[in-house]
TrEMBL record:
Pfam families according to UniProt: FAR1 (PF03101), MULE (PF10551), SWIM (PF04434)
Keyword Signal included in the entry's annotation: no
Organism encoding this protein: Centaurea solstitialis
The name this protein goes by in its record: SWIM-type domain-containing protein
Domain of life of the organism encoding this protein: Eukaryota
Keyword Zinc-finger annotated: yes
One GO MF term: zinc ion binding
InterPro entries recorded: FAR1_DNA_bnd_dom (IPR004330), MULE_transposase_dom (IPR018289), Znf_PMZ (IPR006564), Znf_SWIM (IPR007527)
Region (Disordered) location: 744-773
Biased composition (Basic and acidic residues): 763-773
Annotated SWIM-type domain residues: 602-638
Keyword tags: Metal-binding, Zinc, Zinc-finger
């Protein structure tokens, strides 16, 4: 090639060849010694040798390039790479994929990105030609907007970097029928732009392609509400530093956006498809849904474990509505019971469009269809819609109000001074939780309380007094399992528990995934309690055989409550009167406080023939365990075992099987064997790195063997394109196949109390006006101004 001549000293590139590299490893002293004799080229200090070549000193890990100039004064760059990886005209490859892999390897060493260009196929679909070009091939599209002479109301163009530079570097292959291989028939290594250096190459597009591990990290961050930015930082730290990240925060955000685009507005239909599939695989899985013409209005579901929990612990349940669990603002309604470990368990779940009596009635009737019978006792807050729906769906169920919610609300009805600077809260709790008060005694205590704090005539307190039979424990001592009202904050706590996993920006498919993870966590806690009960022995606090027997039949948590009653029976109970009536022994047992003051007396009737012992305090009726007064009689009678009729099944051990697999495994939504093999592979590599991390030579050999195995895999499993790998990963993560039809849409226009997002409500007209002002974007795939771009275009 003929070169033009110019004077280097005048800072104009001449006909000589210049090599650019990096001097990052050069010490300051070395640099000062080498300045002498240097010339300045485009503001860069370089050294000039006798032959006229200009270069920068370089490390072995950095990429060097040669810049030349043609007759017309145009500069171009050639990478300096090893000849063994440089393509040549006439090279042959068995497949197009092999040619692509070789060219990408060359590009990585040379310092540029590769883009797949034209592709030719025959009538049989066989590729006959394939063009691989530099990522900067082509020219940018001319601007349609003049930012200097912008007119009012004119569409503005987004500021973006231009990536095209008219580069002609390429490699073209075609199929040679005579040899059955692909041959390189054109190769151009001249670039119209500078190439990446070694350090900069980590930020090139090809090296920012997310690996499957990176994609898993993004997905796991989404379902656990960690956040994409935090997950990116954690991934960087786990890889050593930012230089080895393999993707920027924007790449992570784009992948999350791609997952959301995959679901789109078909999440309601996908949710229904998942439920249908689970019902086919497990007949015990129950679900029902309700739609209008196109939109999902309500859905209820209960899996086999939830139904089993209800059979064992469904005598008393509570439910409450929670909000902001997914982007459609549907109301999440979990039904909660108390298991044999005194832990909350979900026995059913629902999503409803509105919080009114119609929707709650439908959900409660679906609950009965799922479980076969309504509960004996249901506890809710003061929601008027629930109050209307419960008598319709549960006509024979006792309805009580959540005492925890009322106690929480009472602080809002009085002044801050009264709450913080007086004994108002302590006196309130002492009054309402006093199980020893008779109804008439409570009425007197209530009036004294109002007089003390000047609340007589307050409308809220008068209203609560009128419905006192629904929330004051003194009025339903004889209601079975009403003692669970001491834990009536369970619905509120279960809502907070689900909110740890679910987020208000989730679609319905993501919400179901988060729900499954939360349920798995809850059931894992049950297994932990079962193991503690089975393999640990509580410390005995007395020589009583009755206590030892209780430790063997009850779960750990329940036994501690029985043990407490046993100790109180010894130290806080005494005899006041003993008589015999109709062959039964009648005891009057005193109930003492910590100061040994008698605060109540209860009658205990014992029938030794039928092995019954009944106490007027009704603790067994409310909580399902014997009270200290009855235990006092049994201890005095030297009874070694708690009678079987007083050991409720709901408090016994080993009621629910422990070996319940995660939902996605049970319903065949994941390949269990594949997941196990992947876990073994990750564990094996992790163990190897842990062993050799301090032995650099051994670590080098391990890396070389792993890279060799990676190359051998190309013959067994051809590498798919980045786009195909991404779509495959998203399908696997979402766990729901794409739906061809979309006859069930998510609800729209929902506005329930508590479902706001911190923004004022806007009318339809105002919303449409704002959307009209928002500029659309030109999609280069469908070539239209729309709300998406080429990355997530439906036509792509």
């Amino acid at each position: 090639m003929n070169m033009g001549s110019s004077d280097v000293s005048n800072n104009v590139f001449s006909s000589q060849v210049y090599e650019f590299g990096s001097s990052s490893g050069m010490e300051l002293g070395d640099l000062s010694r080498r300045v002498e004799g240097a010339v300045l080229c485009d503001g860069v200090n370089v050294n000039q040798e006798e032959d006229g070549n200009v270069f920068l000193s370089e490390d072995e890990d950095n990429i060097s390039q040669t810049m030349e100039e043609d007759d017309e004064g145009c500069k171009f760059y050639k990478p300096n790479v090893d000849e063994s990886i440089r393509p040549k005209v006439g090279d042959v490859f068995p497949t197009v994929e092999a040619a692509e892999k070789m060219y990408r390897k060359y590009a990585s060493a040379a310092g540029f990105d590769v883009r797949l260009s034209n592709k030719k196929t025959n009538k049989f679909g066989i590729t006959t030609a394939r063009f691989f070009v530099c990522n900067k091939e082509g020219h940018p599209t001319p601007k349609l907007y003049d930012s200097l002479n912008a007119k009012s109301g004119e569409r503005r163009r987004r500021n973006s970097n231009l990536k095209r530079a008219g580069c002609c570097a390429c490699m073209k292959v075609h199929y040679v029928k005579s040899i059955g291989r692909y041959e390189v028939y054109k190769f151009n290594e001249e670039h119209s732009h500078m190439l990446f250096s070694g350090d900069e190459m980590s930020l090139s597009r090809s090296n920012r392609d997310l690996t499957f591990g990176d994609q898993c990290n993004v997905f796991n961050a989404c379902v656990t509400k960690v956040g994409v930015a935090k997950s990116h930082r954690l991934r960087n730290i786990s890889k050593g530093n930012v230089g080895f990240s393999g993707g920027t925060i924007r790449d992570y955000q784009n992948f999350k956006k791609d997952m959301n685009t995959f679901v789109g507005n078909k999440d309601a239909k996908m949710l229904i498809n998942v439920m249908v599939n689970r019902q086919k695989i497990s007949p015990q899985f129950f679900f029902e849904y309700k739609c209008d013409e196109t939109e999902l209005l309500a859905i209820f579901w209960a899996d086999e474990v939830a139904r089993m929990n209800y059979r064992e612990f469904g005598d008393a349940i509570s439910f409450d509505a929670t909000y902001r669990t997914q982007k459609h603002a549907m109301i999440f309604v979990p039904f909660v019971a108390v298991d044999n470990h005194k832990r909350s368990v979900v026995v059913g779940s629902a999503l409803i469009r509105k919080e009114n009596a119609v929707y709650f009635t439908w959900v409660l009737k679906a609950f009965v269809r799922a479980h076969g019978s309504p509960p004996k006792l249901v506890i809710t807050d003061q929601c008027p819609a629930m109050k209307q729906a419960i008598p319709i769906a549960f006509p024979n169920t006792i309805h009580r109000l959540c005492l925890w919610h009322i106690t929480k609300n009472v602080k809002k009805q009085v002044s801050v001074h009264l709450v913080k600077n007086t004994s108002f809260v302590a006196d309130w709790n002492k009054m309402i939780w006093n199980m020893h008060l008779a109804p008439a005694e409570f009425d007197n205590k209530w009036q004294e309380f109002l007089d003390l704090y000047g609340l007589t005539g307050d409308s809220w307190f008068n209203q609560m007094y009128d419905i006192r039979e629904s929330w004051i424990p003194a009025f339903f001592k004889d209601t079975p399992m009403s003692g669970l009202m001491k834990t009536t904050s369970r619905s509120e706590s279960i809502n907070a528990f689900f909110n740890v996993f679910a987020a208000f920006w989730d679609d319905l498919v993501s919400f179901l995934r988060s729900f499954d993870i939360a349920i798995e966590s809850q059931r894992n806690s049950h297994c932990v309690e079962e193991v503690k009960t089975k393999y640990t022995a509580p410390r005995m606090r007395s020589p009583s055989k009755l206590e030892l027997h209780a430790s063997r039949v009850y779960t750990r948590k329940v036994f501690f409550e029985v043990q407490k009653e046993l100790i109180k029976a010894v130290w806080c109970c005494g005899w006041d009167e003993i008589s015999r009536v109709d062959g039964k022994h009648v005891y009057v047992v005193t109930h003492k406080n910590k100061s040994s003051e008698v605060i109540a007396k209860y009658t205990v009737v014992q029938d030794k023939e039928s092995m019954t012992v009944d106490c007027s305090c009704n603790l067994f009726v409310r909580n399902g365990i014997l009270c200290r007064h009855a235990l006092k009689v049994l201890l005095n009678d030297h009874v070694d075992r708690i009678p079987d009729k007083y050991i409720l099944r709901r408090w016994r051990r080993d009621l629910i099987p422990q070996q319940w697999l995660p939902a996605r495994v049970r319903y065949g939504e994941v390949d269990v064997e594949k997941e196990r093999l992947m876990a073994r592979a990750f564990a094996a590599v992790d163990r190897m790195i842990g062993r050799v991390r301090n032995e650099k030579d051994v670590l080098q050999r391990v890396v070389e063997k792993l890279e060799k195995m990676d190359e051998e895999l190309d013959e067994v499993v051809p590498l798919k394109s980045s786009r195909e790998r991404k779509k495959e990963a998203i399908r696997e993560f979402v766990g729901v196949p794409e739906s061809d039809d979309n006859d069930v849409l998510p609800p729209s226009g929902i506005c329930n109390k508590g479902s706001g997002r911190g923004k004022r409500l806007k009318g339809v007209r105002e919303t449409k006006e704002e959307e009209a002002k928002k500029p659309k974007r030109l999609c280069r795939t469908c070539n239209d101004f729309v709300w998406h771009d080429s990355r997530n275009c439906p036509m792509r």
